Amino acid sequence: MSPRPRLSVVVPVFDEEQNLALLQGEIVSALEPTGEAFEVVYVDDRSRDGSFAVLRALQRADPRIRIVRFRARAGQTAALAAGFDHARGDLVVTLDADLQNDPADIPRLLAELERGADVVAGWRRDRHDGFLLRRLPSRLANRLVAWVTGVAIHDTGCTLKVFRREVVLRLPIYAEQHRFLPAISAATGARVRELVVNHRPRRFGRSKYGLGRAVRVLLDLLTLKLIGSFSQRPLSYFGLLVLPFAAAGTWTAFSLFESFEGLLRGEGAPMREMLAGMLFLMTCAYFLMLGLLAELAVKASGMHRDAPHRPMTHAPEGRGTHAPEGRGTHAPEAPR
To answer: Measured in whole angstroms, how far is the alpha carbon of residue 198 from the centre of its chain?
Structure first.
């Protein structure tokens, strides 16, 4: 077991065999001059090409490399979460494996972190991607995320970021929420800053993203907002759901009041209005009771939110660890 490093670089990998050797060389060239002890945690999302074999070869040449491999493909968010689980450094850097992020920017991000930030996010101001399929959807998504979350980050999709360890230990991420790490971090009280970083055109392989991810981003953003609001004030959330039914019930009550003279003349009760009014009243009562029960559940749990389940991982021939049950704990590695 090598000494505990101060810096961990977490790199999710999926079908990037042509990029990995170049990326490792750039990481070493960028970090060795800083004098900081570091490790590189590659998380192989069950690549279909020769990425895993390349990683094994790189690991034999450099003991600072650690490999985590999923038993089945789980996605980039799960890969980052597993990397956070296995990272041992006080500072954690996240980086894409496609060479579009520049490792030479890492020292600048670390310097900005030392100035008092808890999270420093990269901003790809000059992107080398297609406009219609990549840059335009990204701009729209970034503005929407900033408006919904209140965290003014220009580029939430940039994987190049640096975190303090105590921040990543408190990030309950799942689904496709790796794009919202700055917003989630800010919700825990972290000080979030951003820095313009270099963005390079892809040299090898192909992009793993398409327009289909836009729907997933919207759904995850909605989930993030609702969970954040619900955990803080569930009764207020359910109270908002009551409002339209209360308005409809009020309108029905006025309709029944106008029919009151007909009731006095023995014309019979307007059954449709009465049934609709009872339905609206029962719906209001139902949501209010759910809100009260949610308040009791939140108070009883002490606002505790466990980290989500992590996909199982296994290490090649004793070179890694199995995924721990909870974030911040690590199974012992086999001796090298």
So the answer is: 23
9: nearest Cα among 149, 141, 163: 163
The answer to whether 204 touches 129, Cβ cutoff 8 Å, is no
Question: Domain limits of the chain?
Answer: 7-213, 233-301
DSSP notation for 155-179: -TT---EEEEHHHHTT----TTGGG
CB proximity list for 148: less than 8 A, separation 6 or greater: 221, 224, 225
Q: Cα separations (Å) of 44 from 15, 27, 31, 314? A: 9, 17, 22, 10
Look up residue 307 and give its two tokens: 């980290």
**Residue 196 vs residues 65, 122, 153, 253, 321: alpha-carbon distances, Å:** 28, 6, 11, 59, 35
Question: Using one digit for the tens of pLDDT, what is the confidence trace for 166-188?
Answer: 888 877 676 566 777 887 787 77
Distance CA 295, CA 290 (A): 9
pLDDT tens by residue, 243-252: 888 888 777 7
Q: With helix as H, strand as E and coil as C, how does 78-139 read?
A: HHHHHHHHHCCCCEEEECCCCCCECHHHHHHHHHHHHCCCCEEEEECCCCCCCHHHHHHHHH
* 80 Cβ neighbours under 8 A, 6+ residues apart: 10, 12, 43, 94, 173, 178, 181
Three-state SS at 21: helix
How far apart CA 246 and CA 265 sit, in angstroms, is 29
> What is the distance between the alpha carbons of residues 213 and 210, in angstroms, rounded to a whole number?
6
**CATH class assigned to 7-213:** alpha beta
Distance set, CA 317 to CA 24, 84, 122, 333, 336 (Å): 21, 22, 35, 11, 10
Q: Are 70 and 313 in contact (CB under 8 A)?
A: yes
pTM: 0.68
Cβ atoms 43, 79 nearer than 8 A: yes
